[in-house]
Design goal:
The structure is a homodimer.
Chain A lengths: L3 E5 L8 H13 L4 E6 L1 H10 L7 E5 L10 H7 L4 H10 L5 E4 L3 H11 L10 E6 L6 E4 L9 H19 L6 E4 L10 H12 L4 E5 L11 E3 L2 H26 L3 H20 L8 E4 L4 E4 L6 H16 L2 H13 L1
Parallel strand pairs in A: 1-2, 1-4, 2-3, 4-11, 6-9, 7-8, 7-9
Antiparallel strand pairs in A: 5-6, 5-10, 10-11
Enzyme class (chains A, B): transferase
GO biological process, one term (chains A, B): phospholipid biosynthetic process
EC number (chains A, B): 2.3.1.274
Chain lengths: ~325, ~325
């Protein structure tokens, strides 16, 4: 049966327009798909009509409420049960869809997922896994922000979930697992990381040791494990550094005529580097450790990013990533 | 009296050559300075001679041992008391110099400073402060790696020390203090950061709130406070991201003839951006909270970086930064 993907039509800075367009686009690549857009019917159908969409691959489920990007996660999911985010996740929980995709409030998405989908048996904490562009194969970092306070055992579980995800998505049987740290030696880091290093070393994972921030873009590890505080700081620091450098370059390139002429020739190269850093190509963050596939795109997702998030959701459904994580966890618990 | 700067002639990947050349260079800018090069006399004097240096502004103190970049900090300073690093710091402790500059092993430098210079009264933990290039005014981040495990009160003290340092170095009376975090709201972050936020808010510092990784290069804060684990991950992630992007660009710029022609025109712009990110311009990391000025340059420091580290050391001596930190701490302790 074709996967049925529930999409939060109201999530993100450019919803519903870009979300709906992304859903339409993805059907060109995956024609068998069923997409259920959850949101304000009138607004959603307006976009479908303006795009000239007709067909039965997209259904619309009408709900009145929207959770904003800045709303408090736990409060908003309590007070807005009729929001696209909560209603959509409930549909997955009730088996009316195979995966949930949103570009909305990450915290609310996590809170609602925990409440309605619940954790996989044995999983101590779910984690947010993000794909960091660096050429091929890409890097997966987790936890990117679900758990600001971690215990060492959480980090070991992140490694196991990251392994299963990486394997499903990039076809590497035993991905190299690294631990973010401030030095290569196993005695380096905070007490959390020293203990986590020991646990990872004893595990049967393909653990390659500590990875420093400057080595993230090397290919020492495929999956890098961090606590959610550090992981979140890392992805935002990469984002900040990249946009600072690219905007500095653009400014200097367009400053004088000589540079202007040169930049005509170089624009393709600059565009290519920009694209290689483009999170939109990478399909958003996956919430790992839940009884269901949940993908949260960047708040500023455009149609392309939404399209790619849906694609990743389909892959995760087809690869049975959730079932595989459950199996690994069972093995751990035994 | 002219400041007397003790320089670890054997510290860093390009020692003694680049260190000695940096010392010679700085005398062109600060002719009144006294520099004491500590290291293997024969090797050091060979460089002085080959550079044609003659004069009494540089003295050489002969010690036989060298602490390598990869040696264990505490063990190495115990077993190698006759190393340039330990002997140099001892000289500062004994009043034979006003500041210590090294491009050697940061951990060993910290351990030896704690042992011989000791902490300023009231300082719970010394911190490593680094200057991050982002245009003017630059950003100071601390702790960049001295304390992997922190308590909230450490972070408040880092903020106070950072303030005094920033004021001394960049002339801003009440620099804006930010706390690294994973969101803007004060309820965000790990328990360490939530408590630290509360302490900073209650303090009389010019606290501007949480700063996310993507905002480091904005100008929300002048001084950003972090625990040493997170701070170290940040600076290395910036380093890794920047060199990844610049090398990608360089590769693409030189790939085909059309780009090659363009890159001739753009090389100045690329060089300028590279320079703006160059830690060598910023004079290394300052160890704050000790009874003495200690500056540790990047291990890969060349003459220019050494020269700038010495310049910063002179500034800190002249501005009496250590005395000012001691005064603030007294006020805190009362």
């Amino acid at each position: 049966m074709a996967p049925r993907i529930i999409v939060d039509a109201m999530g993100g800075d450019y919803a519903p327009r870009e979300v709906v367009l992304g859903a339409i686009e993805v059907l060109r690549f995956l024609p068998g798909l069923q997409i259920i857009l959850v949101g304000r019917r009138e607004e959603v159908e307006k976009v479908l009509q303006s795009a000239g969409f007709a067909g039965d691959a997209i259904h619309v489920v009408d709900v009145p409420e929207v959770i904003g990007m800045e709303e408090h996660p736990v409060e908003s999911i309590r007070s807005k049960e009729d929001s696209s985010l909560v209603a959509g996740l409930k549909m997955v929980a009730e088996g009316e869809g195979d995966a949930f995709v949103s570009a909305g409030n990450t915290g609310a998405c996590l809170a609602a997922s925990l409440r309605y989908l619940q954790r996989i048996r044995g999983v101590l904490r779910p984690a947010i896994a993000v794909t960091i562009p660096r050429g091929s194969p890409p890097l997966v970092l987790l936890d990117a922000g679900a758990n600001a306070d971690c215990r060492p055992e959480f980090l070991t579980q992140f490694a196991i979930m990251g392994k299963v995800y990486y394997r499903s998505r990039f076809g590497v049987k035993e991905p190299k697992i690294g631990l973010i740290n401030i030095g290569e030696e196993e005695t380096k880091g905070s007490s959390l990381y020293i203990t986590a290093h020991g646990l990872l070393k004893e595990s049967d994972l393909n653990f390659v040791g500590n990875v420093e921030g400057r080595d993230l873009f090397g290919f020492k590890a495929d999956v890098v494990v961090a606590d959610g505080f550090t992981g979140n700081v890392i992805i935002k620091t990469i984002e900040g550094t990249a946009s600072m450098i690219l905007s500095q370059l653009k400014e200097k390139f367009t400053r004088d005529l000589r540079s202007k002429l040169g930049s005509l020739a170089l624009l393709p190269a600059l565009r290519e580097v920009k694209r290689s850093l483009d999170y939109q190509e990478y399909g958003g963050a996956l919430l790992l450790g839940l009884n269901g596939v949940v993908i949260v795109g960047h708040g500023s997702s455009r149609a392309k990013a939404v399209r790619n998030s849906i694609k990743v959701a389909v892959e995760m459904v087809q690869e049975k990533t959730v079932e595989k994580i459950a199996k690994e966890m069972e093995r751990e618990v035994r």
